[in-house]
Task: inverse folding
């Protein structure tokens, strides 16, 4: 079978890596891919949001399954275009992708279907938004309505900070049209976790739990990024909490998708805040998390191709999914300056030393080939992902591998996994 994966990040490298292990997959294309992906797939010079060119390619090459990694082509309707032509594709239609593409759509959907989330108001007028902020007082969270690469959310500890966020979004228009409207919502305190499911609109298969690290610096300080590292499993999601999430969040979500006649054959990613043991949804994404996909797919035992194909065909109920009983940790190596402006073209050294490692995979994100060498070409450059018998040993393996890699200006968090280790230690202490 031929598979086309769309995207160029660490998530897509992890998808291609896992798909390439399936005995049913003969050939993988990736559009546009990156230097790491080009070692196991044929990379195409087609942009991830060039729907016409992607469809032409899938038609011409008789691609059996197209897997969409990032949100932009999904919100632009790539699934609708492929389905119209009877082509098999993994991902939600444009209406489903609005769960991620519009914070207001997602919040209204949650309100309509009783999914627990922070109290909120939506605004298209700066003046009314500012009035509301002054009335409510801090802390508050201000969110651009549209897509902003994970950077459109401001957790404001003071009224001034909230107003400055409103200004940046609505007046300075730093996110362009994505900031035509905003959501202002109650600030929730608790521990965050990511919960992803596969669904074909009828059946739900939960994926292994994971936890992201959004802030750029250790101790969750500094501005938010796309994600600086992740681990799986996330001990904050106990079995009891998982069934609570299925009951309170996933069940009403699936009911809502069906009521709204949304064709959702893909991944729903719920970004959760666990407050006093109860789940609240901060956001929905309509795709695998990045970097979460990296540690999660590393722990997958089953055949990813079978899972994604069955989802795209609406027969997910036929699939059994199993996970390795270990843990994995992914540390993102980023360019100096990220999530702000950064330089590209820095030579990456040390990758060869890790090629044959049994428990480490270095997933590429912003990398490209230059005169046979590999150089940086993005903010998040590599996702060094390691497995181990528990989070502590996976973390050791990951950081030992990180030490072997070098590029100018390389920055990374040193505390990926610490929260899980602390929690596991606390549980062990409770039991003794
Ligand atoms: P989002 O893209 O909506 O998940 O927001 C990005 C990040 O902002 C989240 O991962 C949280 O760290 C933070 N955040 C978003 N909404 C809230 C909220 N209502 N209360 C507290 N923190 C939030
Ligand atoms: N890591 C967060 C995201 O994929 O949205």
Result:
């Amino acid at each position: 079978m031929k598979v086309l994966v769309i995207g160029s990040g660490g998530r897509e490298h992890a998808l291609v890596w896992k798909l390439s292990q399936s005995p049913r997959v003969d050939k993988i294309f990736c559009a546009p891919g990156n230097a790491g992906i080009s070692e196991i797939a044929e990379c195409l010079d087609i942009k991830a949001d060039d729907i016409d060119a992607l469809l032409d390619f899938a038609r011409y090459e008789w691609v059996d399954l197209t897997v969409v990694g990032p949100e932009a082509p999904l919100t632009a309707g790539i699934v609708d275009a492929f389905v119209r032509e009877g082509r098999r594709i993994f991902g939600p239609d444009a209406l489903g992708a609005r769960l991620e593409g519009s914070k207001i759509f997602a919040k209204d959907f949650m309100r309509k279907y009783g999914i627990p989330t922070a109290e909120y108001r939506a605004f298209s007028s700066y003046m009314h938004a500012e009035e509301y902020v002054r009335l409510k007082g801090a802390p508050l969270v201000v969110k651009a309505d549209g897509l902003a690469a994970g950077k459109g959310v401001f957790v404001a500890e003071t009224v001034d900070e909230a107003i400055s966020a409103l200004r940046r979004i609505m007046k300075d228009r730093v996110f362009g049209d994505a900031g035509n409207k905003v959501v202002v919502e109650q600030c929730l305190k608790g521990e965050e976790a990511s919960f992803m499911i596969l669904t074909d609109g009828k059946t739900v298969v939960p994926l292994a739990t994971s936890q992201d690290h959004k802030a750029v610096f250790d101790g969750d300080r500094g501005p938010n990024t796309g994600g600086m590292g992740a681990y799986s499993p996330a001990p904050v999601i106990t079995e009891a909490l998982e069934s609570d999430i299925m009951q309170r969040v996933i069940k009403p979500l699936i009911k809502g998708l069906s009521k709204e006649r949304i064709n959702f054959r893909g991944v729903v990613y719920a970004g959760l805040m666990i407050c006093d043991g109860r789940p609240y949804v901060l956001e929905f994404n309509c795709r695998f998390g990045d970097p979460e996909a990296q540690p999660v797919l590393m722990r997958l035992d089953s055949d990813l191709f079978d899972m994604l194909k069955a989802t795209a065909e609406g027969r997910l109920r036929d699939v059994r999914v199993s996970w390795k009983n270990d843990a994995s940790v992914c540390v993102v190596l980023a360019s100096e300056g990220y999530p702000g402006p950064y330089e590209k073209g820095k030579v990456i050294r040390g990758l060869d030393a890790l090629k044959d490692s049994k428990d480490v995979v270095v997933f590429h994100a912003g990398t490209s080939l230059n005169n046979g060498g590999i150089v940086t070409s993005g903010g998040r450059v590599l996702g060094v992902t390691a497995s181990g018998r528990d989070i502590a040993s996976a973390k050791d393996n990951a950081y030992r591998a990180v030490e072997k890699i070098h590029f100018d200006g390389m920055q990374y968090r040193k505390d990926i996994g610490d929260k899980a280790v602390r929690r596991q230690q606390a549980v062990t202490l409770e039991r003794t």
Observations:
- The radius of gyration is 21 Å.
- The mean pLDDT is 96.
- The domain at 119-186 is CATH 3.30.1490.20 (Dna Ligase; domain 1).
